[in-house]
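INTERNAL AUDIT FORM
Audit reference: QA-55
Scope: verify that the stored structure record matches its stored sequence.
Auditor: D.O.
Record contents follow.
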Amino acid sequence: MTNAKGGIEVEVKSIDRKYERYRMKSAGRERVLLTSILTGGIEEPLVGVFTSAAVPVLLDGFKRLRCADKLKLSSVPFESIGEDEAVGILHLLRISNHGSLTLLEQAKWVDELRKVYGLSIPEIASRLDRSSAWVSVRLNVLGEMSDVVREAIFRGDFPAYSFLYTLRPIRRLNEVPKADVDDFVKAVSGKRLSHRAIEILAHSFFRGGEEIRTQIKSGDLGFCLEKMKSQAEGAQGLSELEKRALRDLEIVQSATGRLILRLKNDALREPSFLAQAGLLVGGILRNSDRFLATLRGFNDRQRNT
């Protein structure tokens, strides 16, 4: 039966959910969606493909489907986007520019196309009208994640942003073993911490010594956060020049890791962006030797005091 809102009506119990673990969960977004569906129904059809046995395989719309379960709906609108699963996945990736997929969700689908359907990196790139570098970046990001980290992120227990822009740079710059990253993620997952709190805890865990690391692993996250707060309060006795220097160093430390990742992304291609970024990078490079020499000199003085 065709639905007025698009797609056809399919029975909820007939839907194959095998790709559910490929999409990230978000309890907050799901609560908002549940309220919306309760008052106005499902506005957009769920998206997937039909198998040769006419079984609907879901690719996009798992939050809507879980809401349908909670509301005990017997059927939902469903739209088919391909004649088989690989074609459907490729179509979903092609339209993901509109924000329907996160980078890590894209990575999971790309990995599926490579491992299960046997497509090479150039083949995937060609069929998505993307560069091979675009495909490789996503496979590399996924390859840097352990099963523990991947599952925590896709369950919605650990924010992907914190992995990409905090843990990943720390691990790369300090050659941190994956097992240590797993320990950290296990300790903070599901605690609903802000990105800033996770960043503070991560820097303490990997650089703050065994006492803090043990406290975090034992679940005493408040201990570390209070300690960092105390250190910040202790900064009240510093001169204004010293406070500004610390703030600038924090900004540089935080921005360095993010830029290492972002500037490698081939999605940065708009001419206006490239022109402005080129000027900024040129200015940074002109000062880079003097800047690094200043940092090394300060580090040497600090160690000798």
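Auditor finding: record pair retrieved intact. Residues 271-303 form the longest helix (33 residues).
Action required: none
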